[in-house]
Amino acid sequence: MRQPRAMNALNRLADPVYCLVRLIIGLNYACHGSQKLLAFPGGGHGASGLAFTAGIIELACGLGIAFGLLTRLAAFIASGEMAVAYFMFYVGAVPTVAAKFFPIMNGGELALVNCWIFFFIVFYGPGRWSIDSLFSERRRSAPSASAIRVGTVES
User: What is the DSSP string of 91-126?
Assistant: First the structure.
């Protein structure tokens, strides 16, 4: 089944919109780490032990995801941290079976949604509008070492 032409016109906006989504999600995630480590924005609640580790992961991975630097690795680590946070602090902290099963009842919706968004980014990659993409373009445009040794440059 083919899509209507009006929907196909939206395909040209897929890369900039993905970049925007990655930027917003990544910066939002980095804000959580910044709040734990730097007490900004909105003051901090202190970071020691597990919260300190979470703050480092959230700040570093959030910025990496936002700007597309080591995107897949950052998203993988961030997804794992959100999965751990969900099961430790939301599922493990409620007494009833229903509250353990439904994220809306245990307050873990944000951790769960972030976990799956980051998991998606692991597989989708950085996208065209990213620092990773700039590095891979330079690598592709540079002649290979074997071509330089032989004295020919591949096009």
Answer: ITT-SSHHHHH-HHHHT-HHHHHHHHHHHHHHHH-S
State the maximum Cα–Cα separation within the chain, in Å, rounded to a whole number. 71
Interval 68-109: pLDDT, tens: 999 999 999 999 999 999 999 888 878 888 888 888 888 889
Question: pLDDT tens digit string along 21-41?
Answer: 999 999 999 999 999 888 788
Those residues whose C-beta lies under 8 Å from the C-beta of residue 126, and which sit 6 or more positions away, are 22, 68, 71, 72, 132, 133
Domain-by-domain residue ranges, the chain?
A: 5-129
Picking from 83, 66, 81, 43, the residue whose alpha carbon sits closest to that of residue 130 is: 66
How far is Cα 58 from Cα 74, in angstroms, rounded to an integer?
9
* Global confidence as pTM: 0.81
Q: How many helices (H) and strands (E) does the chain have?
A: 9, 0
107: left (phi over 0), alpha (psi -120 to 50) or beta: left
CB 65 within 8 A of CB 154: no
- Distance separating alpha carbons of residues 37 and 39, to the nearest angstrom: 6
